[in-house]
Amino acid sequence: MSDLLPRHRAVMPNWLSLYYDEPIEIVRGKGNRVVDAEGHSYLDFFAGILTNMIGYDVPEVRDAVERQLATGVVHTSTVYLLRAQVELAEKIARLSGIENAKVFFTNSGTEANETALLLATYARRSDQVLAMRQSYHGRSFGAISVTSNRSWKNNSLSPLNVHFLHGADRHLTQFRGLSDADYIAACVDDLRHVLATAVSNDVAALIAEPIQGVGGFTMAPDGLFKAYKEVLDEEGILFISDEVQTGWGRTGSAFFGIQGHGVTPDMMTFAKGLGNGFAVGGVVARGDLMDAPHAIGLATFGGNPISMAAANATLDYVLDHDLQTRAATTGAILIDGLRAAKGRLPIVGDVRGKGLMFALELVDPGTGAPSPALAARFMEETKKLGLLAGKGGLYGNVLRMAPPLTLSEEEAREGLGIILTALETINGETG
Ligand code: PLP
């Protein structure tokens, strides 16, 4: 056993989740692989938790950070101008497609969502918010109140008055067997019904993830967000797209996940991979919302010089190498390959995803019930074979995978081979 595990248990909270029976201590990274303290190399199919976007030890990012350090400029504040911050904001505003967009930087996704919710509630003078079932937006009081999964909510205190919609969550019996079009119609009915019955006066915003990350990479059918947006526009309700997991070309189809749904939101929040490991998050919003009376952000360290240097270098790398297009191609190798194998693997209940954000749902082959035990088994088996994955979802049986966008086609095939080998082994064990 690693000497770190008992020391970790002694001084760190028990609720920190370590995915493996014998947790891994990662000590080095290069390209799309990481190496643990015992020298085992892994193809990284979870990329931190999507915090690595363009692989490890990238000279462009390292040089940018070292150049910034060499200036001695580590002045972190919000009261002086910073060229790298303005330049990054210009790029993000342009890519967002939002009219007259302005950007505010934070250190994390949670802070980004807090800021977006503050902006929306200032602008609309309302503390009422709509969110989606099975969502995850962070664990501060505001973010947790729009998060929807009992096991991620440790209290019911909420600074917001929140109503939850269905969206990607099609678990209810009444939704089974519905076509996408009928399901969307039912969701729109539900939204209108909530607006007619559950709220008072104005609602500030709807916050939603284009693909629900922690929720198990669950996906709303194409057309749902567009249909929601029409109702929101009629009612003057703002739409906040939480792009913390889906931003920067991850979904292959578009630069931000919601753009793949043909929707331009009023605000987007982002974080995770933008700094390729350096902490950076933020909000890009319509200028009138960002500058609404009383609007103010939160984050002394937001937009600090080191994170800005890393983020500019990372975003330039994504754009220069057209990684969004590459994610669509490598993602298709993986998703198509898994779909093709599903028929012969009764433990695989579902394969879903877009670009380099894809998931497998493992089920008991006899009953079809979600099987967190098989998901845990998959994690151990793929670890043995040299691949890191993530798990989660409402029942803990979803295997989530999101490699760096720099994954090559060869690495995608290698990863697919490992995943299939693991699934075949586990499937055999259940037979
Ligand atoms: N929003 C989404 C969609 C997330 O997946 C997460 C984290 O997993 C957050 C917000 C919170 O981000 P952070 O952990 O950086 O505060």
TrEMBL record:
GO terms for molecular function: transaminase activity. It is an enzyme of class 2 (transferase). Its cofactor is pyridoxal 5'-phosphate. Gene3D superfamilies: Aspartate Aminotransferase, domain 1, Type I PLP-dependent aspartate aminotransferase-like (Major domain). It comes from the Bacteria. InterPro entries: Aminotrans_3, PyrdxlP-dep_Trfase, PyrdxlP-dep_Trfase_major, PyrdxlP-dep_Trfase_small. It holds the Pfam family Aminotran_3. Its EC number is 2.6.1.44. Transmembrane segments: none annotated. Keywords: Aminotransferase, Pyridoxal phosphate, Transferase. PANTHER family: ALANINE--GLYOXYLATE AMINOTRANSFERASE 2, MITOCHONDRIAL, PTHR45688. Belongs to the class-III pyridoxal-phosphate-dependent aminotransferase family. Homotetramer. This is alanine--glyoxylate transaminase. It comes from Sphaerisporangium dianthi.
